[in-house]
Write a structure and sequence with these properties.
D-Maltodextrin-Binding Protein, domain 2, alpha/beta, 10 strands, 15 helices, globular, 5-stranded mixed sheet
Length: about 325
């Protein structure tokens, strides 16, 4: 699912052979002192922190919020120091994962199944989780921890006023009234075999009209009543601010993208206390809660660190 070299310079020195020896001796003394100091500093830091763990984030609001939540929980419940690497695209993250350059992150079951493991689609949440968890464990020596609670997948959404007017809460119910609704999306989704054509076939939709518009214009279009139904990510922060009703995908057209922390086995073995800390988010965040958290960052422009801390405090996980 759901993103961002340094030139070296060389300085030349001209010295006599005698001067060169003196310079080299001085440099060795400085380097030796520095290495000793750094080693002592690192040893002191690790003794104090109990080691360092690197959490990776894909760089959008949801990922940054969750990474900061996990950071706060680990720092509270262990002696470890936590670093966050953000703005990693899916491809960069996957390469870092395979090379062992990361320790933990929040991943989505659907992304792991299709994009990383290249498996056929599975539409049952538990089955997807079981498949990716086993594959990661057997092939990559990584552990999937407990799901956080929300499923950041695709869904149809309509204005709440229309949902109330027609009594619509599921996609099948929308299908019954679809001749009264105009559907709109980016052209790419209209053309994708697993996009609009799949919705139309699975739910027997008969929309009054179908409109295409530029990327990222869907929320504007439905707010201005140019269209009546759009496709959304189910935890998008714009949903509550746009007063939309996300419809249940009652025929399970879309793949589940349940979020869960994953962590390298060797890191868990060295720091078994991490499992309990990272699992404190298990079942704690619903789709609606994640929408509101994302809204604080994407719409209200609050810092992800603050949003994470406030939520954990409200949940009694931080003081």
């Amino acid at each position: 699912m759901k993103v961002t070299q340094k030139k070296s310079t060389k300085t030349r020195y001209i010295v006599s052979k005698k001067g060169l020896l003196a310079v080299l001796f001085a440099m060795l003394m400085v380097v030796g002192t520095a290495c000793s100091s750094t080693a002592n500093s690192n040893s002191s830091s690790e003794s104090k922190s109990g080691g360092t763990i690197t959490l990776s984030s894909k760089g959008f609001a949801e990922q940054d919020i969750l990474a900061n939540m996990l950071k706060l929980l680990v720092e509270k419940d262990t002696k470890m120091t936590v670093k966050i690497k953000s703005n990693l695209t899916d491809n960069v993250l996957w390469e870092a994962f395979k090379k062992g350059d990361m320790d933990a992150n929040v991943e989505y079951t659907g992304t792991a199944l299709l994009q990383y493991l290249k498996k056929d689609p599975i539409y049952d949440s538990q089955k997807v989780y079981d498949v990716v968890a086993k594959k990661y464990k057997d092939q990559y020596k990584w552990t999937w921890l407990d799901p956080i609670g929300f499923n950041d997948t695709y869904a149809l959404a309509i204005r709440k006023e229309d949902a109330d007017k027609y009594g619509i809460s599921t996609t099948s119910q929308l299908a019954k009234y679809s001749n009264k609704f105009i559907f709109g999306s980016a052209q790419e989704f209209l053309n994708r075999p697993d996009g609009f054509p799949a919705i139309k076939e699975k739910y027997k939709m008969n929309f009054k009209d179908v409109k295409a518009f530029g990327a990222q214009l869907d929320y504007q279009a439905i707010s201005q009543k140019q269209v009546d139904a759009i496709i959304v990510f189910t935890t998008d922060g714009r949903i509550p601010d746009s007063h939309l009703k996300v419809l249940e995908d009652d025929k399970h057209l879309f793949l589940p993208y349940d979020a869960a922390p994953i962590v390298k086995d060797e890191v868990l073995k060295a720091h078994p206390e991490l499992k309990a800390a990272l699992n404190k988010l298990a079942g704690k965040i619903s789709n609606e809660q994640m929408q509101l958290l994302n809204s604080k960052v994407d719409v209200k422009h609050e810092k992800a660190e603050k949003v994470a801390k406030d939520f954990l405090t409200e949940q009694g996980l931080l003081k």
